[in-house]
TrEMBL record:
<feature type="signal peptide">
    <location>
        <begin position="1"/>
        <end position="22"/>
    </location>
</feature>
<feature type="domain" description="DUF4369">
    <location>
        <begin position="22"/>
        <end position="112"/>
    </location>
</feature>
<dbReference type="Pfam" id="PF14289">
    <property type="entry name" value="DUF4369"/>
</dbReference>
<protein>
    <submittedName>
        <fullName>DUF4369 domain-containing protein</fullName>
    </submittedName>
</protein>
<feature type="compositionally biased region" description="Low complexity">
    <location>
        <begin position="250"/>
        <end position="259"/>
    </location>
</feature>
<keyword id="KW-0732">Signal</keyword>
<feature type="region of interest" description="Disordered">
    <location>
        <begin position="231"/>
        <end position="266"/>
    </location>
</feature>
<dbReference type="InterPro" id="IPR025380">
    <property type="entry name" value="DUF4369"/>
</dbReference>
Length: 266
């Protein structure tokens, strides 16, 4: 009997040791965060659910737990979304200050925040155009000339932003970053729509990306909306076939997890 118990314990230890885990170590110099409770939240079954929590003590905080699958989550303070994080094996480091938020230490987080940094650089260039306009007006340059010049610059930055986002999603179709950033760019819309950028992404998409619950539901609904706007019967439209059933994750929960919280567009 004892040998059977020992064997069961040994098996349990082996399975436990093989299970992946996440370890998040964070620091913050933002005084308003001290003493606050932070949450990791993720969309599951159409709802935004808490999966972990901790307190910020003297600017330090940490999360840890068993990792059943690599997933993209958001760090929240109460109902305020702060930043996206990829929960994956390894020590994940978060740094929050009054200027920026950054996650590093694991491959997908490093890749995500390299992308976010590049996106923020484009945002800064776009914001600088308004200052440039003011300087040109003070220099006595004709307003029509100013508008023409700055419009061309704005269009160039917008094209760079579209290419940056599209290429990033395409390069990460088969990991959590592709669907996660797709959620970021689509959550800004009031309802699912098709854009040239989305059409390009879906034309190149792998089956795994198309079968992601959020992507699948968004694209199906966007096609139906497009059909309605053209006066067609949504039931007549054809979208690429997928191989699995997936629930809808559109709506407030899906939009709030990443939209407007990643530093994109800020």
């Amino acid at each position: 009997m004892n040998r059977i118990l020992y064997a069961l314990v040994a098996v349990a230890v082996i399975f436990t040791s093989c299970a992946s885990s996440y370890d998040v170590q964070g620091s913050s110099s933002v005084s308003s965060l001290d003493g606050s409770k932070l949450y990791l939240k993720a969309v599951k079954d159409n709802e935004l659910k808490k999966i972990d929590s901790c307190d910020v003590v003297h600017g330090q905080f940490s999360f840890s737990g068993v990792l059943d699958t690599v997933r993209m989550v958001n760090l929240f303070m109460d109902d305020e979304s702060i930043m996206p994080i990829v929960l994956e094996k390894g020590e994940i480091r978060i740094n929050i200050d009054n200027v920026s938020q950054n996650v590093s230490g694991t491959p997908l987080n490093d890749k995500l925040y390299e992308f976010i940094d590049k996106h923020n650089q484009l945002d800064n260039r776009m914001s600088e155009l308004s200052h440039k306009q003011s300087r040109m007006l003070l220099d006595g340059i004709d307003e029509n000339i100013i508008n023409e010049k700055l419009s061309l610059e704005a269009e160039k930055i917008a094209r760079e932003e579209d290419r940056l986002v599209t290429d990033f999603i395409v390069d990460n179709f088969d990991n959590v970053l592709g669907p996660g950033v797709f959620m970021m760019i689509t959550s800004r819309f009031k309802y699912p729509i098709l854009t040239p950028q989305i059409e390009e992404i879906m034309t190149k998409a792998t089956d795994k990306f198309k079968n992601n619950p959020y992507v699948k539901d968004y694209y199906q609904t966007a096609n139906e909306n497009e059909a309605r706007m053209q006066g067609l019967d949504p039931s007549d439209i054809s979208v690429p076939a997928t191989t699995q059933e997936s629930p809808s994750v559109l709506g407030d929960s899906a939009s709030s997890i990443l939209g407007g919280s990643s530093g994109l567009g800020q």
